[in-house]
Specification:
The complex is a heterodimer of chains A (263) and B (265). In chain A, 34% of the residues lie in helices and 25% in strands. Chain A is of the alpha/beta class. In chain A, the strands form 2 sheets. Chain A has a 6-stranded mixed β-sheet with strand order 5-6-7-3-8-9, sandwiched between helices. Chain A has a 3-stranded antiparallel β-sheet with strand order 2-1-4. In chain A, helix 3 crosses helix 4, helix 3 runs parallel beside helix 5 and helix 4 packs across helix 5. Chain A is globular, with a radius of gyration of 18 Å. Chain B contains 13 helices and no strands. Chain B is globular. The chains are: A alpha/beta (263), B mainly alpha (265). At the A-B interface, loops of A face helix 9 and helix 10 of B.
């Protein structure tokens, strides 16, 4: 069974607010290139608890976006599977996606961009869309076009769009990497507020160690085709990036991250 | 000193156009009055204005205007259907791209005069010639624009739609059509302007009615003011279509583009 079939949607059968768990089982991916088959990763096994915030770290070309795309169903794995579990035991999970660039349709208003992805959501109304925009601080911008917003505001619309389908799992692919640091910091805080309020499982891809430690409960490090680092973040929230605990753990995480080069 | 001059005199497109028109008429008048060579070989703006007024009052223009309009209507109509279908085929499927892309390049490169003569030889004297010539010239331009529009569809939007499980029909309607629409509309405007030009040229060569035919008629009797009065009519008509119809449609359909800037309220 493909990962796509597994993820399906619960939009048709009404919604719940429970977070889903992700189970990556014996996952392998290789691409057919001009030079032959190129292995991206092999036999990956990861379990992600419901309601947790997990960051996947890796250097450029390590395959972290490929893994996220397989989890989201955009790509098919070469072998293995991705399984989801929900509190009702059905495994029918709704996935929300936030991309590196917001991927908004410039010809539609922000509200219509949100409505676009709610085709099969019987619970969606215009009020739901407005509420999501309120949550990300865009109350005055319902009917504006994406082109009228700043980069940070557009990414907020992207987050509101993902949350509007009331997903059990939120997949985020380096969503703040194109933003200036001040805006990115604001959005990280906002994301943490939303996450603590909404009980969602977040699978977040980044190459920024500080960002990962600020956000996540757990860090996964992907490289050389395997998960070579798996660290729980033992720092209380809210986390200050200049605190001793943060700096100490950051050093440990960086050492682990770089360990793959030393092998 | 320049602070006291209203900015609209330099910024408003319509006002600047009027200013340039007045400037051309003034230069034309001065040249006509001061240069004997111009006076002997050309006509004055006043003569053209009188001829245009006479043409307008005589109502002769109605018959020829309607004839030209029908030539363009059929030619452009065929081009819209053929160009859009061809553009979609070439843009969407590799096979059709390989089969037709070079024809589009050749179609754009062929001189309009050749097409007008070719149509006249094929269809003879009558209304079919200008309509066919307009269709043949305009089709590859529109097809090329649609082709370009399809190639420029943002793949990230398609991936986003797939990730959110959006249905194919909705993706076609809300992403693909909307992506291609600006290029299609730009092609439409250009194809329409081309249709008018080539239809008039074909009327000039092989028609019994139409603005092009009347320009030929005035030329035969060496009435330069008469020729220019038809040109004035033709220009006014094109400007009306461009700004009065197409410009207004564009404003409504592509409102998001005009507002596509930070700080717009």
């Amino acid at each position: 069974m493909s990962s796509r079939e597994l993820q399906s949607t619960s939009r048709e059968s009404g919604k719940n607010n429970n977070a889903g768990s992700i189970h990556i089982e014996q996952l392998s991916k290789e691409f057919d290139t001009a030079e032959g088959y190129e292995l991206v990763f092999d036999n990956i096994n990861v379990d992600i608890e419901p309601g947790s915030f997990v960051c996947l770290l890796g250097k450029s070309g390590s395959g972290k976006s490929t893994m996220l795309n397989i989890v989201s169903g955009i790509l098919e794995p070469t072998s293995g599977r991705v399984r989801f579990e929900t509190a009702d035991g059905t495994g029918d999970v709704t996935l929300g996606h936030v991309f590196q660039s917001p991927r908004l349709m410039p010809w539609d208003s922000n509200l219509k961009n949100i409505e676009f992805v709610n085709e099969n959501n019987p619970n969606y109304t215009t009020e739901v869309g407005k509420k999501q925009l309120d949550l990300v601080g865009l109350t005055e911008h319902y009917h504006k076009y994406p082109g009228q917003l700043s980069g940070g505001q557009r990414q907020r619309v992207g987050i509101a769009r993902a949350l509007s389908i009331d997903p059990e799992v939120l997949l985020m692919d380096e969503p703040f990497s194109n933003l200036d640091e001040i805006t990115a910091e604001e959005l990280r805080e906002q994301l943490l507020d939303l996450w603590s309020e909404m009980n969602k499982t977040v699978f977040f891809v980044t190459h920024d160690m500080t960002e990962a430690i600020q956000l996540a409960d757990r860090l996964l490090m992907l490289g050389d085709g395997e998960i070579y680092g798996d660290l729980e973040v033992p720092i209380e929230r809210p986390r200050r990036i200049d605190s001793d605990a943060f700096l100490k753990f950051r050093q440990k995480a960086i050492d682990t991250f770089n360990s793959i080069d030393e092998d | 000193m320049f602070d006291k001059i209203p900015q609209s005199l330099f910024e408003n497109r319509f006002i600047v156009f009027l200013e340039s028109t007045v400037a051309i008429v003034i230069v034309w008048t001065i040249a006509y009055r001061t240069l004997p060579l111009i006076r002997e070989s050309f006509v004055s703006p006043t003569e053209v204005a009188i001829a245009t007024r006479e043409l307008f009052v005589s109502m002769i223009w109605v018959e020829h205007f309607v004839a030209s309009l029908s030539h363009v209507f059929y030619g452009f109509g065929i081009a819209v259907v053929a160009g859009t279908v061809l553009g979609i085929l070439v843009g969407w499927w590799d096979f059709w791209e390989k089969a037709f892309q070079d024809y589009l390049t050749v179609g754009i490169a062929i001189p309009s005069l050749f097409v007008a003569i070719f149509s006249a030889m094929w269809f003879g004297l009558g209304s079919t010639t200008p309509a066919a010539a307009a269709a043949i010239v305009a089709t590859p331009y529109l097809a090329t624009n649609v082709y370009g529009g399809i190639n420029n569809i943002d793949n990230d939007l398609l991936t986003m739609a797939r990730a959110f499980d959006v249905s194919r029909f909705r993706v076609i309607k809300r992403v693909i059509v909307q992506s291609v629409l600006p290029d299609w509309f730009a092609g439409l405007r250009y194809a329409l302007a081309l249709s008018w030009k080539i239809a008039s040229l074909a009327e000039y060569i092989a028609a019994e009615q139409g603005i092009g035919y009347m320009i030929r008629f005035e030329m035969r009797v060496l009435d330069l003011a008469g020729v220019l009065s038809w040109v004035v009519f033709f220009t006014a008509l094109l400007l009306f279509i461009e700004y009065g119809i197409l410009g207004q449609i564009e404003k409504r359909v592509f409102a998001w583009r005009q507002r596509d800037s930070i700080g717009w309220v």
